[in-house]
Amino acid sequence: MKNTSITLDQGYIDQVKQNVTPHWGELGWVTYKRTYARWLPEKNRSENWDETVKRVIEGNINLDPRLKDSPSTEVVNELTDEAKDLFKLVYGLGATPSGRNLWVSGTDYQKRNGDSLNNCWFIAIRPQKYGDSHIVPDYLGQKQKAVSMPFSFLFDQLMKGGGVGFSVVQDNIKKIPAVDNKIDLTIVIDKKSASYADSVKLGATDKAEWAKQNEGKSDYIYYNLPDTREGWVLANARLIDMHFNQTNSENKNKLVLDISRIRPYGAKIHGFGGTASGPMPLVEMLFDINNIINNRVNSNLTSVDCTDICNLIGKTVVAGNVRRSAELALGTSTDQDFITMKQDKDKLYHHRWASNNSVAIDSKFNEYEPIANGIRENGEPGIVNLDLSRNYGRIIDGYQKDIDGDVEGTNPCGEISLGNGEPCNLFEVFPYIAEQENWDLKDVFRLATRFAKRVTFSDYDWEISRNIIYKNRRIGVSMSGIQDWLLNDLGHRVVTGFEDGTDEETGEKIKKPIYDPQGIKMVTAAYQAVIAADKEYSKTLNCNESIKHTTVKPSGTVAKLAGASEGMHFHYAGYLIQRIRFQASDPLLKALDACGYYSEPDIYSPNTTCVEFPLRAAHADSKNFASAGTVSIEEQFATQAFLQTYWSDNAVSCTVTFQSDEGDKITSLFKQYRHVIKSTSLLPYYGGSLKQAPKEPIDKEKYEERKAQITGDVAQVFAEQNDDQKDLELVDQTDCESGACPVK
């Protein structure tokens, strides 16, 4: 048996570079260089775009399982040709893999970490077995259920740069046994540690003093944390499990955690990248989690307690300056304590900011007004209709009982309904740009489907994930720049108007959207291309067809590369100032300044510089152009419903923006689309009213004035200055428009 690797020929790459110009958006190259260009130590610089695309495509194409077993020349030639097509497509920015794949695919980190190509995950918070996973506490058997397991899964995935949705619905929380033991937690640290003084301030104890006082005693569990991600996870698992008799076989109530070996603040993190936070955030987290569980001795943890534990974990992960924690907490729709938990401002500012909170509903649910009140107040909760997710693909295809019956929740952005332990698996097509570059969209969607399908052949770290991924083979082929595409090809928006109608169940009068028939044909043809490609490739690979295939992710950083509107969202404005935050030491600032971009110190964060980029949306001057500031709440709901009906068999991520005078329409629109929209969230439209707002609408005259001040090409100036540095990146850039999911 011999493994074969596909590599792209440099001659072909040079040929593509001569004939194809990447469709960079006005922010595209800058965003790429600071977010996805990896450092090349042998060349003492970061990657160029063609090098990134080569790495990513080779990392993916070599996941094809046929390459493991002395493949035929025919297979090697087929995959080599496919790699060439993918390179040309992605290099030109007609489509891209997810931001996660742009960062990780083709690296050693991908080979060491089976989960690394998937960005977001879902876990149910209830006692579960660890199984045959890369993390199993040594005091547990693989098949023994433990309260700690879902928290360990969440902690591990967040530290690997992923986002996690988690379910604290009452059916899960009721499965957690009553807390048996109050645990006396001591955290010790050696005086030699560079983190000693800061850790002691947070409640840690001098290791030598503790050893002296406890000489000869054996009434405690002692764990010396290794300087690894797994060490942090196992320390937290031991703390949680000691509270429950069924996982405290030693019957001890004192836990001593030694953090002396954890690398100090600022030390390099190899593999994923970035710098260490030191042990201080971990110290704070462990004491906080212990207090929560100790307060429930002889009673049960609540949904709020479990959400707090997840939020404290997320807060700890955020303390590392590269990783970002994205969480979505899914609660029961009647759980008022959960729904109102962010009203405690002290806890909100301390840790409850770490998740977006939504409630699970079914199609019979009718209590929308309290939810609408919460949304008008602070933009939460969102809603997730699990009935629709379990029993429908595209809405037009009708009710299919349990077609996706294992679904329990969603990823943090809401575009993929997921089972326990399951991840998102995304690829993004920019149809408007691909058509401009003369691609046949059928070919583009075929390549996208096959790329995502190969990701399901990764060697996943957790048994629970392996089981459901290999069964479902779920993929999420997404589109961005949808508004650009429809407006260009149709000459107008897909919702052409509304007609009077009646809700068949309630008899209430509604305004039914009218969709352009050609728009329906466009997205239907794209869907059918994905389905056909999956059938063909699944048969070739002798694996299950994907349980679902299509989605609309919110996008963000990836859409900025190509300058496309984000997911299904309308451009924020026809013309706008986009503010991007950079670390003050970032060498790109020098090039941006030389090219005439305006910058100033960030008023919110020290050592951060805010740079202003004037942007123009595609078709900004069309009479049929609409922006988030001008499009009605009704049209946004109708557009999401259109995509859920004819394109997405997963879900459609959408953050509906509403004006102050539209808030009273939320309840009726939730009711109208209760059998169509699987998940949605809403936010008030701020219109750039905040100081140094990320986006500020401007008029065409101001855009042209600001554009005229920009005199150079940043990529060219940056190359001339040749002042690249390692491990620097954009601040506040995310893979999702809403800011929910992480970059990497």
Give your account of this protein's structure.
The protein is an alpha/beta fold and 744 residues long. It is built from 28 helices and 27 strands. It has a seven-stranded mixed sheet. Strands 21, 22, 23, 26 and 27 form a five-stranded antiparallel sheet that branches. The protein has a four-stranded parallel sheet with strand order 9-8-11-10. A hairpin with a 6-residue loop joins strand 19 (495-502) and strand 20. Helix 19 (441-455) packs across helix 22. It is globular and about 80 Å long. The two termini are 35 Å apart. The model is unreliable at 723-735 and 737-744 (pLDDT under 50).
Which helices and strands, and how do they pair?
Elements lengths: L9 H10 L8 H8 L3 E2 L4 E2 L2 H13 L11 H19 L3 E3 L1 H6 L3 H5 L7 E5 L3 E2 L15 E2 L1 H12 L3 E5 L2 H4 L10 E6 L6 H6 L3 E2 H7 L7 E4 L4 H13 L12 E5 L21 H15 L8 H16 L7 E7 L3 H4 L5 H6 L4 E7 L6 H11 L3 E4 H6 L15 E4 L6 E3 L6 E4 L1 H6 L4 H15 L7 H10 L3 E4 L2 H9 L4 E8 L6 E7 L1 H25 L15 H6 L12 E9 L4 H7 L4 E3 L6 E9 L16 H14 L8 E4 L7 H7 L6 E6 L10 E3 L2 H9 L5 H8 L8 E2 L13
Parallel strand pairs: 4-7, 7-12, 8-9, 8-11, 10-11, 12-13, 13-14, 17-18, 24-25
Antiparallel strand pairs: 1-2, 3-17, 5-6, 14-25, 15-16, 19-20, 21-23, 21-26, 21-27, 22-23
Helix pairs in contact: 1-4, 3-4, 7-11, 7-13, 11-12, 12-13, 16-26, 19-22, 24-28
